[in-house]
């Protein structure tokens, strides 16, 4: 964003951080991997796990929330890994990503990989399977994010880094603990009707219609459903960050 260069100070409101109050290069300059997920407690637990795996701490250590000045998001860091919560749905993760990408820019980070981890609804897979997203698709199975900017509809690509998908699949094969597939992830605007559930407050379709829709999704290459991947893919692509 060229407008950032004209600002005396860039305040990341929802992180409670700012370039006038924090030394971004000192705090985050060594970051190489960013893992994001919906729940603050889950991302804290992930930080403890990564610390132990990297030999940088134990699961019993307490990792401070860098964004403790706000209750919007939580952020934890161990070594070169930043762990950030993003809440639920496209609007919430979009706000987080705007400020995260600016944080990485101000910290002068390079060769960053951002990975979104989390639970999702599977289609045609055993529970507990891992889906590595090839591309995010909307509820009509198109690989795009439709967004309104200044009153105009903007269509953005949701393709993700193919090489990274292959590398993650290879890692899964070496670990050998999970059934792992590469497939499309469908990003919806709603948890209930948007995902064809029958147990929401409103439901104007029957089970047969639901199953027909899910079969169409599967036949198009969709293997799981969630509510954040489209804007994640679009923003990673637009900012030149390798994401998955």
Automatic annotation (TrEMBL):
State the name under which the record lists this protein: Uridine phosphorylase
Q: Where is the signal peptide?
A: none
Molecular function as annotated in GO:
uridine phosphorylase activity
Family listed: Belongs to the PNP/UDP phosphorylase family.
- What GO biological process terms are annotated to this protein in UniProt? nucleotide catabolic process; UMP salvage; uridine catabolic process
**Annotated keywords:** Glycosyltransferase, Transferase
Q: In which pathway does it act?
A: Pyrimidine metabolism; UMP biosynthesis via salvage pathway; uracil from uridine (phosphorylase route): step 1/1
What's a single GO CC term here?
cytosol
Q: Which residues bind substrate per the record?
A: 195, 197
NCBIfam families in the cross-refs: euk_UDPppase
The Nucleoside phosphorylase domain covers: 32-242
Family matches, as Pfam families: PNP_UDP_1 (PF01048)
Q: Which reaction does it catalyse?
A: uridine + phosphate = alpha-D-ribose 1-phosphate + uracil
Its biological function?
A: Catalyzes the reversible phosphorylytic cleavage of uridine to uracil and ribose-1-phosphate which can then be utilized as carbon and energy sources or in the rescue of pyrimidine bases for nucleotide synthesis. Shows broad substrate specificity and can also accept deoxyuridine and other analogous compounds.
Q: Per its UniProt record, what PROSITE patterns does this chain match?
A: PNP_UDP_1
Chain residues that bind phosphate: 72, 116-119
Q: Does the keyword Aminoacyl-tRNA synthetase apply?
A: no
Record-linked CDD domains: UP_hUPP-like
EC annotation? Answer: 2.4.2.3
Entries under InterPro entries matching the protein: Nucleoside_phosphorylase_CS (IPR018016), Nucleoside_phosphorylase_d (IPR000845), Nucleoside_phosphorylase_sf (IPR035994), Uridine_phosphorylase_euk (IPR010059)
């Amino acid at each position: 964003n060229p407008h950032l260069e004209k600002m005396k100070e860039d305040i990341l409101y929802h992180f409670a951080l700012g370039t006038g109050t924090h030394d971004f290069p000192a705090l985050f300059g060594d970051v190489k991997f960013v893992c994001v997920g919906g729940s603050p407690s889950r991302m804290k637990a992930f930080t403890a796990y990564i610390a132990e795996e990297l030999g940088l701490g134990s699961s019993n250590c307490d990792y401070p929330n860098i964004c403790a000045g706000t209750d919007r998001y939580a952020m934890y860091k161990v070594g070169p890994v930043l762990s950030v919560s993003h809440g639920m749905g496209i609007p919430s993760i979009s706000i987080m990503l705007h400020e995260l990408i600016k944080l990485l820019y101000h910290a002068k980070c390079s060769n960053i990989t951002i990975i979104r981890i989390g639970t999702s609804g599977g289609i045609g897979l055993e529970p507990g399977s891992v889906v590595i997203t090839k591309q995010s698709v909307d509820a009509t199975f198109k690989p795009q994010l439709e967004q309104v900017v200044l009153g105009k509809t903007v269509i953005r690509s949701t393709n993700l880094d193919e090489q990274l998908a292959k590398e993650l699949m290879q890692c899964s094969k070496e670990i050998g603990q999970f059934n792992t597939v590469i497939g499309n992830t469908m990003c919806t605007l709603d948890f209930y009707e948007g995902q064809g559930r029958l147990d929401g407050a409103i439901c104007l379709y029957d089970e047969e219609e639901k199953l027909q829709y899910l079969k169409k999704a599967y036949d198009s290459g969709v293997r799981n459903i969630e509510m954040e991947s489209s804007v994640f893919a679009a923003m990673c692509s637009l900012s030149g960050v390798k994401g998955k």
